[in-house]
Every structure is written in structure tokens, then in C-alpha cells.
Design brief:
The chain is an all-alpha fold. The protein has 19 helices and no strands. The chain has one domain: Amino acid/polyamine transporter I.
Amino acid sequence: MTEPLSTTLKSNSVGAMGIVFFVLAFAAPLTVIIGIGPIILGSGGSPGAPGAFVLTTVTLLVFSVGFAAMSREHAGPGGFAVYIGKAFGFRAANAASFIAVVGYNSMLSAGVALFSATAGNTLSTSFDVDLPWWIYGLIALGVVGLLGYGEIKLSVRVLGLLLVAEVVIVLILDAKVLATNGARGIDVTGFSPSAIVQGGIGIVFLMTFAAFVGFEATTLFAEEAKDRRRTIPRATYLAVILIGVFYTVSIWCLQLGWGVKQSAAAAADPVNFVFNLTSRVVGQWSADAMQWLVVTSILAALVSTHGALSRYLFAMGRAGLLPARIGSTHHRMKSPHLASLAQSAVTIGLTLLMIASGADPLTVLYPRVMGIGSVAILILYVAASLAVFVSLRRSTSENRVWVTTIAPLVSALALGVMLPLALINYDFLTGSHNPAVNLLWVVAPLAGVVGFLIHPPGAVTIGSIEVPDLQTEDVG
């Protein structure tokens, strides 16, 4: 007689800071600073980029008001799909889960391409090692798969170590720039309203929002959290504030380091924009270290994204949308091990497709595949904002107007602007003017349509399965 499958994740496994590590790793702070710094401070960006980060942070904090209120009752490994299901029902939750899986898989595949190109370039420069790019990608997937299979505590420790290293190197640069008063003195022009609306502000806000992608992870790990009713809201606010302050200060320091008016000219060399400043202000040793830490930053993002996807697949399996075994957990570790293996197989398959395309991983594959993910996640954020509004309006346990109405509506309107902004500037996201390439974003809503239409026998709404309530204890 076969034993029944275990379908609950290991409770009380991770505290608020552990979840914050996952969110920060997803955001890949060092990679974002190096990648978007020259874009938003360059000729196509805006001198008000630091101020734009402040506004984006405030917007997401407002979103977090309703998001955190709902998380006390409804958070789970289905992420935003749980919220959307509570508000709009079974089919809407299905659609959201399919969009999420397509979106995060796009981001994960794009991350593999970026990791491969970056690792290959770093090893070639440092040790004159020249191997096909995909070898680095497959090695990374092996590491990611092993961490995803095991207990969440191991991933948290690895992510914590990698994150501290990449954040510290940026903070050293920030401190040095501020200590030396920058290139032209301390200038707060970048925070003025007049500066914020200058230049390509649409692109800037699109990039600043993209820098926060991944903070949905605070709910994805709710079932494994210590005292989730306090941990998830705490982790959500903490993640948004830490990411927002880090990016705002660091982008401002890049601007000061080059000079407000000179930063656009320096950004004409985007690859070396941050490295050259770091070498000049801190020393060549720090620029060399930063090149290696970019590689580990991307690896940390891959680990976090894989973890998020594994929990989405696990939730879909437990709800009956996928085979039941995918919704089961390891008998000892209580990790979503089969969902992790399934996700590893999907990522390897997508990587093989990228290899077969023969396209350059950095200039072609990364931006084009990432563009699909960006649109998918934006759709989820807008839908989740509306779901929070609808659900909290029905709530009998929450009656504060700011929480139930004002904050959800304001965030829904603000995030709703981002979606058409992304579609209007989609050629900027992909770096291509090919009409076929710039229609790839339709994959995301099409995935939602497929999910909406699917109704396997016996399937239930994601997040509707009751799991044992987690014991209350202090969290770290």
C-alpha cells in the first residue's frame, strides 16, 4: 500500500530577513545598478532618476498597504494568483498562475543567458579561458537545481552570503563618493520635480519599476515562514524600503560621482560606466572585485527565481492544475522537490532552445526573452492591485478606508500606467526594431487565456486548500 503524498511545505523554516534575502536576490541589486545606471542617467534617461526611484518606492509602499493586509489571511506559494483567485475566482487564478509561470520562466531563461555571457567574459578577461557560453549556463543551472531541491534554509544561507558581498561593494562606492563630495560637489538636483519630468522619464520609470521585480516572493514563501501573519507584512515593507533606499542612494551617488551634467556623457560607454567610476574613486581592486560579484549577483537571482517558480508549480500541482506529484513535498525536507525538478527540466529545455537559436546571449537573447517576462509580471501587478481592492472591500475584518480603498486604488492606477508604458517602449526593452520580435509580449496574455480556459477535473482554486496554521513565535 502506497503512502499518501505529503502536500505541505516545512513550516517555521524562514524568518523575515530570510524572505527579504530572496526578494533582494531576485532584484539582483549590483546587476541592476550596473545595467540600468547608464540607461537612466544617460542621454535617453533623465537627470531626475534618483527622484524617480523615490516615487517608485513610495508607489510600491502604497501597494504594500493592501498587499500586506491580505497576506495575513491569504498568502501562499501561489503568490499573486492566490490574491487574484480570492477576488475573481477559479479561472482568474488559473490565468494568473499561467502568466506568472511564463513570466518568471522568461526571466529565468534571460538570466541564464546573462549569467553565461557575464561569466564567460569575466573568465576570459581574468584567466584567458574561452568556452562556449552555454557551458557556464548549464553549470549554473546545476547549482540552482541542487539548491532548489533541498531545504529553504540552505538557499537562504547561500543567498545571504552572496547578497552581503554585492551590496557591500556598492556601499563602499557610495560612501567614497559622498566622502569626497562627488565630482562637482553634493548636488540634490536629481530629486527636484523639474528634473524628474525631464528627458526620457517614461523609460526611467519603466526601469525603476523593473528594478523592484520579485518582491512578490514575500508571499510565495508564506507557508514556510515563521509566524506568517507578522513575518510577511514585515518582510514586504522591509524589502521595498531596503531596495528603494539602496537604489535611490546608489543611483544618486553614480550621478554625483560623474557630475550631474557629466553623467550623460559618461554613460555613452554603458559597459564601463560603473566600473570606470569605481576604479577612479575606490581603486582598481574594487572594480575587479565588482566584475566577479556581478556573476554571483546573477547566480543569486537565478536561485531566487527558480525558488519562486518551484512554489508556483507546487501550488498548481496541489490545486490539481498540474499532476498531483508536482504538488507534493519531500518526505524529510518538506521542500517542493518534484516541482523543483520539473522546473529544472523546463529551464534546461528553454536553454537548449536558446543554444539552438545561435543568437548572442547578451545582445539578443537576454533583452528579447526578458521583455516577455517584464510584460507578464506587469500584468500580474496590475491584476493583483485590483484584486486587493476588491477583496478588501469585501473584508469584514478590515474597515480602514486607507487600507481597503485609497491605497489599493492609488497603487492600481500608478501600476496601471506602467503596463501601457512598457508596451509603448517595448522596442526599447528588446533592443530591436523587428516587428515580429516586438510582438513577443503577446505570449504573456495568451498564456493567461490558456490558463483561463483550462479546468482539469477535480481542480480547485489556487490558495483555497487549507494548510495547518503556523505557530506564533518571534522571528528574525
